[in-house]
Amino acid sequence: MKKICVFGSLNIDMTLFVPHFNLPGETLTGTGMSIFTGGKGGNQAVACARLGAPVKMIGCLGDDANGAMYYEKLKEEGVDVSGLKVCRDITSGMAFIEVVPEGENRIALAVGANGLLTEEVARESAAAIAECGVYMTQLENPLEAIIEGMRIAHENGLTVVLDPAPARPLPDGIFALCDVVTPNETELNILTGMPTDTLEEAEAAARTLLARGAKMVLNKRGAAGVLLVTADACRLIPGFKVNAVDTTAAGDSFNAGLAVGLADGMDIEQAIRLANATGAISTTRLGAQPAMPTRAQAEALMAEQG
Ligand code: ADP
Question: 102 falls in which pLDDT band (50, 70, 90)?
Answer without folding.
Answer: confident
